[in-house]
Amino acid sequence: MLTETTWKKSTYSSGKGEECVEAKRRNQNILLRDSKNPTEILPSIPHSEWIFLIAKIKSDKQSL
Question: Do 29 and 41 contact (CB within 8 A), yes or no?
Answer without folding.
Answer: no
